[in-house]
Amino acid sequence: DAKTTQPTSMDCAEGRAANLPCNHSTISGNEYVYWYRQIHSQGPQYIIHGLKNNETNEMASLIITEDRKSSTLILPHATLRDTAVYYCIVRTGGAGGTSYGKLTFGQGTILTVHP
Amino acid sequence: DSGVTQTPKHLITATGQRVTLRCSPRSGDLSVYWYQQSLDQGLQFLIQYYNGEERAKGNILERFSAQQFPDLHSELNLSSLELGDSALYFCASSIRQVAAGNTIYFGEGSWLTVV
Q1: Three-state DSSP class for B50?
Q2: What are the b/e assignments for A43-71, b being 16+ CB within 10 Å?
Q3: Does A93 contact B104 at a Cβ distance shorter than 8 Å?
Q4: Which of A68, A102, A109 to mutate to test the interface with B (most CBs of B within 10 A)?
Q5: Which of A55, B35, B63, B68 could form an SS bridge with A50, CB 3.0 to 4.6 Å?
Q6: Residue-wise pLDDT tens digits, B39-60
Q7: Which of B4, B30, B55, B104 should we substitute to test contact with A (largest number of A Cβ atoms within 10 Å)?
Q8: pLDDT tens-place string over residues A49-65
C-alpha cells in the first residue's frame, strides 16, 4: 500500500472549517483514499473514502487532486468533539497480493479544536 | 455504534497467563481483522480472516493465535503473556475480503493489562 504523509498536528477554532492535508504521491490506480479518526483510546471511526472524485457525507468532505497525489479532508464546522487523531490511509483493492484490503495506519494528524 | 462487538472491554492478568479476546463482526460481514495498539506504538495490524480462513498476517507474535468460527465470530488468543503485551486490541470487520471500496468498521477494543 502507498505511504501517506500528514502533518503531525494542527489546530482549529471551534466553528471554523478544519482542512487536513495528506500526501500520497505513490498512489496507484486501484488504491482508494480512506480517512479514519480516533478519539482518545476509542476504536478508529470511519469518516469517508474516495477513489478519484470528491466525496461528501454527513461528517466531512474529501477533496482529491486530479493527479490523485494528495487529498484534503474538510470538517466544515469543527466542534470540540472533533478533537482526535486523523488518519489518511491508501488501501489496495482487487484480488491478489498480500494486503487483502487491510488498513495500514501511520502516525496521523492530531487535530485540536479550541473554543 | 459500529456494530462490531468486542469482549471483554477490560482485562487484567498476570505474566505467563493466557487470555482470549472475542469479536463479533457486523451482521453480514465476512472479514475480520485484529489490530494491536500499545502506548508507544501506533495501530499495528495483526491478522485477517475471511469466511473462516486466514488471509493476511501482520506483526503477530508466535505466542498469539486467532481463528474465525463458522458463525463468523473471531477469537484472538494471547499466551505466555508478557508486560509488553499490555495494549488495546481492536477487532474490525468488513463485508468482503478485498475490493477497497468497501469499508472496514472497528469495535471499541479490549484493554489488556498484564501485571
Answers
A1: strand
A2: bbebbbbbeeeebeeeebbbbbeeebebb
A3: no
A4: A102
A5: A55
A6: 878 899 999 998 999 988 998 9
A7: B104
A8: 998 989 999 999 999 99
